[in-house]
């Protein structure tokens, strides 16, 4: 049955594209039944990390880069990730599970983007089941980069018994890295001394700082978190700084039985990944709030002899929106389909025939 299909990847000795689609359909999630999958080894180590942050901070991009596998759909718009998903990597005797979480939002934003209660509790749920919390903070946004979102601070306060670390992301967008000093000061409540891997050279004089920037920073400062155990400055986009993040995470792995096979990269089913990938590209290709009004479902999915066949339906609220999604001569829909197809080939490493069709939401629904 389709809803019981399971995603499993086999990582071979050669790099991708030799990743294979190993098993087609099985009837139970691997994580729920470990006993028959392998003999437990006494030296196994496990580390579970909740990756949290505000929408669009780059959480999913970071996770894909960390595990070197595209299992979390990403887009330029907010609220791409709508439910927590696991990304898994196993190395030697250690297994790392990263929870990709939906962006943390307040009630007003939740209403605007039709976000339900599950969505909001999803992040807390992931945190509760983790040994570490990784906070992704976007330094490219000059409006928000000098403070942690109060919702984030609330989460960190509620789970202060779980060690947390800070990942300053998108450093590739900064002309000068010196601004990172002020950001770190602001969002750690100036507790730099307590942070072990803090590596930026302090400025000789505070007069180096342009006046306008200093003023802007003062205005933006709201609240920070002084208890991060480490701070990393990275670009999830270019991969800069990610090696250090990986070493840090793996160094926290503790003795514990693996929850997934060494070959698994995600707990998501192929169907879920296809729907999410279509949704992500609709977010990229359609303007403003339009993509949030669309509903995507999988109409058909089959894996025949290592080739995937899928058909997705995008339900539009009106004929006008449907025309926008399709574009002139269906040009836009073709572009979206091509883009999703190439994303999915990257994810599954098998050929895929994908069709995306549109329909208009019936009035009685
Ligand atoms: N320049 C730059 N862009 C980045 C970086 N990391 C992520 N992005 C971009 O930021 C946008 C959002 O990335 P996502 O990974 O989808 O962000 P997210 O935090 O998972 O977003 P939600 O799922 O909506 O909460 C995408 O356009 C990414 O390409 C980075 O290090 N540098
Ligand atoms: Mg995401």
UniProtKB/TrEMBL annotation:
Residues 48-170 form the G domain. Keywords: GTP-binding, Nucleotide-binding. Belongs to the TRAFAC class TrmE-Era-EngA-EngB-Septin-like GTPase superfamily. Era GTPase family. Residues 205-220 have a biased composition (Basic and acidic residues). It comes from the Eukaryota. Residues 201-220 are annotated as: Disordered. InterPro entries: G_ERA_dom, GTP-bd, GTPase_Era-like, KH_dom-like_a/b, KH_sf_prok-type, P-loop_NTPase, Small_GTP-bd. SUPFAM superfamilies: P-loop containing nucleoside triphosphate hydrolases (SSF52540), Prokaryotic type KH domain (KH-domain type II) (SSF54814). This is GTPase Era, mitochondrial. It comes from Aedes albopictus (Asian tiger mosquito).
